């Protein structure tokens, strides 16, 4: 199984992060790009603008958000394929800016990638 971790972008990097990938569509507030340690910024793996705005990090929308976001991810994209390929090869840490560590899109993406990359490995 792929080693995919998640971490707030505001937390300091650690040597065991592996490849650090920002998975937010918008640049995180209060940070300068020169101050962020990351290898990739893959905007297109983030929820669509419409879905992000609708969710608004409201816990009451969490269950429905997860379903809608998984549907978006299942359509695939070049960046999602790139992220899956990275996760198949080495540890990846998904970086996100949301405040809530239990209710954010990186958790859904992490789960989706784990299932996706393990299925790919079974077919090879």
Give structural notes.
With 124 residues, this protein is an alpha/beta fold. The chain has one domain (4-123). It is 41% helix and 13% strand. The chain has helices at residues 49-55, 62-74, 78-89, 105-123, and strands at residues 4-8, 19-22, 40-41, 92-96. It has a four-stranded parallel beta sheet with strand order 1-4-2-3, with helices on one face. The longest helix is centred in the C-terminal third of the chain and has 19 residues, at 105-123. Mean pLDDT is 92; it is low at 119-124. This is DUF488 domain-containing protein. It holds the Pfam family DUF488-N3i. InterPro entries: YeaO-like (IPR052552).
Radius of gyration: 14 Å
Order of helices and strands: EEEHHHEH
**Helix/sheet category:** alpha/beta
Question: Tally the helices: what do you get?
Answer: 4
Distance between the termini: 14 Å
Low-confidence stretches: 119-124
What would the average pLDDT be, to the nearest integer?
92
Largest sheet: 4 strands, parallel
Our count of domains comes out at 1
The beta-strand count equals 4
| Portion of residues within helices | 40-55%
Protein name: DUF488 domain-containing protein
Organism: Komagataeibacter medellinensis
Pfam families: DUF488-N3i (PF22752)
């Amino acid at each position: 199984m792929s080693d995919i971790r998640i971490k707030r972008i505001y937390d300091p990097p650690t040597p065991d992060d592996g490849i650090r990938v920002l998975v937010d569509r918008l640049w995180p507030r209060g940070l300068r790009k020169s101050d962020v340690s990351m290898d990739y910024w893959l905007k297109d793996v983030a929820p669509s603008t419409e879905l992000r705005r609708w969710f608004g990090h409201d816990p009451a929308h969490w269950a429905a958000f997860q379903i809608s976001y998984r549907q978006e991810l299942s359509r695939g994209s070049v960046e999602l394929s790139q992220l899956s390929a990275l996760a198949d090869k080495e540890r990846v840490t998904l970086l996100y800016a949301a405040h809530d560590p239990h209710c954010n899109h990186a958790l859904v993406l992490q789960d989706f990638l784990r299932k996706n990359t393990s299925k790919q490995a079974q077919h090879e």
